[in-house]
Design goal:
It contains 5 helices and 5 strands, in the order αααααβββββ. The protein is mostly helical and 221 residues long. The strands form 2 sheets. Strands 2-1-5 form a 3-stranded mixed β-sheet, with no helix packed on it. Strands 3-4 form a two-stranded antiparallel sheet. The mean pLDDT is 81.
Length: 221
């Protein structure tokens, strides 16, 4: 069809106010010659297109199936990890050593509490309200030896970063500036001095998660 289109354009004429505006006359269409396929050839093309459509449909269905299986596999692996089933063999070889934070979660949690108390005493963080005790019916499965069930707020605290717009960033800075979507510039100062989990709270990628290096500037996004 493209050569025929070019032929029509070449045979058209007209112009208006310096702007090229082509016109086609009725005879240009009526007298034009085109390639016409006999009915058997049309049927063969139709059949081929139909087969291609079925093939594409099958491929699409197979892709959807594989995506679904992959999602289920990820969920299964995550569930087994949460229940400690992925490390069962390792834990048999490395039984819980009471009081050792590397093996005993209760000891690790106690260390975290001591560290938080020190930070509160120095005025680095505020004292949080005590969280509700976890009831036995809230624990969804039998915990492996050395594990404990806690509130997420027992081991982390969430706070907003500090505002920093692009024009205020240092042109020669090398410290990454994290916004809601990740690194969006560099600065010569930092407001975090250890690897920090950053969660985007606004924008199209709200909820996206990043891990900063030891020094970074985290904005209020």
């Amino acid at each position: 069809l493209q050569p025929k289109f070019i032929d029509f354009v070449n045979r058209s004429s007209g112009g208006m106010s310096g702007i090229s505006r082509k016109r086609f006359k009725e005879d240009d269409f009526i007298n034009a010659s085109i390639n016409y396929l006999d009915i058997s050839e049309q049927r063969r093309i139709s059949q081929r297109l139909s087969l291609n459509k079925e093939t594409l449909g099958s491929l699409s269905s197979e892709t959807d199936l594989q995506s679904s299986l992959l999602r289920n596999l990820r969920q299964s692996i995550l569930q087994e990890a949460i229940e400690g089933k992925l490390t069962g063999t390792w834990r048999k070889k490395n039984p819980v050593r009471k009081g050792d934070p590397e093996y005993d979660a209760a000891a690790l949690l106690e260390n975290i509490k001591i560290e938080k108390q020190k930070m509160i005493a120095k005025g680095k963080i505020r004292k949080d309200k005590p969280l509700a005790q976890i009831k036995s019916e809230e624990v969804p499965f039998v915990l492996p030896a050395g594990w404990v069930c806690i509130r997420l707020g027992d081991i982390l605290r969430i706070s907003s970063g500090d505002g920093l717009i692009a024009k205020d960033m240092s042109k020669i800075g090398t410290i990454p500036v994290f916004g809601g979507n990740g690194i969006n510039g560099y600065h010569d100062k930092s407001n975090v001095n250890k690897p920090t989990i950053v969660i985007g709270r606004v924008g199209a990628l709200c909820g996206s998660i990043h891990l900063t290096p030891s020094q970074a500037w985290v904005t209020d996004n």
